[in-house]
Amino acid sequence: MENDALMDERLQEVLLARLATADPRSMQPHLTVVWYLWDGESAWFSAFSSTRKVKDLVRNPRAALLIDKSNGGETEWAYLLEGPVELVSGPGEEFERVAGELFGVEAGNSNTADRV
């Protein structure tokens, strides 16, 4: 339990994460940086539907997300989250909540038509 609380505390920090996806046809991996939101159970990120990461996830809904914190070149901690990804398209209550927390946008006022 203590480790879960420590992980939750660390993942609440505002940090960038690295997202890895793969095109199932070519098996070519794709690695990109994303802002994320940790809700205690899942990591959320936003992307335009036209991006390669979303296109990869539509065809192959599995990914890896690496979140780490370094200080002076030394890694303090790191978490690797791997597994299935659920695509949530906006607008919608859950989508608006996450978009609001990630981007500081009030519910119902975000330009989310092209984000997943």
Report on the structure:
This protein is of the alpha+beta class and 116 residues long. It has a single domain, classed as Electron Transport, Fmn-binding Protein, Chain A (Pnp Oxidase, Chain A), CATH 2.30.110.10. The protein is 25% helix and 34% strand. It has 3 helices and 6 strands; from the N terminus they run αββββαββα. The strands form 2 sheets. The protein has a 4-stranded antiparallel β-sheet with strand order 2-1-5-6. It is globular. The protein starts with a helix and ends in a 13-residue tail after the last helix. The C terminus is likely disordered.
**Which CATH architecture?**
Roll
Please describe the biggest sheet, giving its number of strands, its sense, and whether it closes into a barrel: 4 strands, antiparallel
Structural class: alpha+beta
Number of domains: 1
| Low-confidence blocks of residues | 109-116
Spatial extent as radius of gyration: 15 Å
CATH superfamily: Electron Transport, Fmn-binding Protein, Chain A
Give the percentage of residues in beta strands: 25-35%
